[in-house]
Design a protein that fits this description.
By secondary structure, the chain is an alpha/beta fold. The protein has helices at residues 26-29, 50-62, 161-170, 183-188, 298-306, 322-325, 332-341, 364-375, and strands spanning 2-5, 10-16, 33-34, 37-38, 93-96, 102-105, 111-114, 148-150, 175-179, 194-197, 202-209, 229-236, 256-261, 264-268, 309-315, 344-350, 384-385, 392-394. It is built from eight helices and 18 strands. β13 and β14 form a beta hairpin. The structure holds zinc ion.
Length: 395
């Protein structure tokens, strides 16, 4: 049990194992577990040889085939987020804080932060590596409540040591969730309020009000009801990989997540691919009728067994060149299929607009998203949208 600081009221947090729900039959097989780590157990995944990686990076650069996207402003608009000052939330509310970071305010009071990275560079080094081309919309101290921090995997654009450290200092008793194999990193970072989960595992997080009040904020939670806040948080499959150094590839698991509280269900797709597309001539449509590349079956299982979701947070960027990026990063066409497979009613795009990780133009993902929606007979706005960085949308 731990205490969660909130405006006006302190909540004690407990994490328990809920009654299991139906999971996919893969659960028993554990086909994603391999000796010393994990794998993507599907035909839709592809691993690359050293030569092909060398080709992707060096040869394409030397021959001028690779592109460096133009990040000259203006690119993606940034606004200062308006977080709710208390836990009264009439509607589910999501605020994009850049890249894969979303802050979600649930009716009932739960506050969840997904994949927070509040650094300028997503890299092990503060002076080298991709640098933000859009501003950070706010600071960690601007976020009033954090009950749970949910991490998709350990890549630097999704898991940041300085950010996690600051979150723990600011919200000493919030609970961290990450896929299997990440516990050690959190323990070494001084965090014990942490649960690691395998795909299809779930936990119940209960926040119970204590009779203590909080001294760390000036905000008044005048309408706090004093009842328990309960959430069901589950780790789910996705197609990706992990590593923070050169020798730990796929040693910790990656995952997507479901968070359910007060009747609202959110699906956080994390960082994921959908299909592995081979190298095709320029301008060829890899979703053309002549191609039938296998896609990751996990999303339809998620939809069938955990869906429908009120809101999906789905990656739409970092996808070019396709022959190299497609196994691990969805493009907008893949993203719309993930949206459909997982049975999300609404969605917001993420994993774009922040760091240049790949070769597509920085403003291309939302354009391609509209094309993909149109192709699938879905309205181009109002269903699967993109928003400004720092914007909050209600559902
Ligand atoms: Zn990643």
């Amino acid at each position: 049990m731990s205490l969660v600081a909130t405006a006006g009221l302190l909540y004690s947090a407990t994490v328990s194992i809920p009654k299991p729900r139906t999971a996919s039959e893969d659960v028993g097989l554990k086909s994603h577990h391999v000796k010393g780590g994990f794998q993507n157990p599907w035909d839709s995944w592809k691993t690359f040889t050293f030569t092909s990686i060398l080709y992707a990076f060096l040869w394409r650069r030397l021959t001028g085939e690779s592109k460096a996207p133009d990040t000259k402003p203006p690119t993606v608009p940034v606004q200062k987020p308006q977080f709710l000052p208390d836990r009264n939330t009439p509607k589910l509310r999501a605020t994009w804080l850049g890249h894969a970071c979303y802050y979600v305010e649930f009716p009932g009071g739960l506050r969840v932060l997904f994949d927070p990275v509040f650094e300028d560079r997503c890299s092990p080094l503060s002076w080298l590596g991709p640098k933000r081309y859009t501003e950070m919309p706010c600071k960690i101290e601007d976020i009033p409540f954090v009950d749970a921090v949910v991490i998709s995997h350990n890549h630097y654009d999704h898991l940041s040591y300085p950010t996690i450290k600051q979150l723990k200092e600011r919200h000493p008793n919030c609970h961290f969730f990450a896929p299997l194999g990440n516990k050690k990193w959190f323990s070494e970072s001084g965090i014990s309020n942490m649960t690691e989960l395998d795909w299809w595992e779930e936990r119940e997080l209960t926040l119970s009000p204590t009779n203590q009040s909080q001294a760390v904020t000036k905000l008044e939670d005048t309408k706090a009801t004093g009842s328990d806040i309960v959430a069901r948080i589950g780790c789910l499959p996705c197609q990706h990989t992990s590593n923070r150094g050169l020798l730990d590839r796929s040693k910790s698991l990656w995952g997507s997540w479901s968070v359910e509280s007060n009747g609202q269900k959110v699906y956080f797709a994390g960082d994921t691919g959908y299909r592995a597309v081979p190298e095709l001539p320029k301008g060829v449509d890899d979703y053309g009728p002549e191609y039938k590349f296998p896609h990751c079956p996990a999303f339809a299982q998620v939809g069938a067994l955990r869906g429908p979701f009120h809101l999906g947070l789905i990656p739409i960027g970092a996808y070019d060149p396709r022959f190299f990026m497609s196994p691990m990063h969805a493009d907008p066409h893949d993203a719309v299929n993930i949206f459909k497979d997982t049975k999300c009613q609404k969605a917001l795009g993420m994993h774009w607009g922040t760091w240049v990780l790949t070769e597509e133009d920085v403003l291309e993902p939302p354009k391609k998203l509209r094309e993909a929606l149109k192709r699938n007979g879905i309205a181009e706005t109002g269903v699967f949208d993109v928003c400004d960085i720092g914007a909050s949308l209600e559902f």
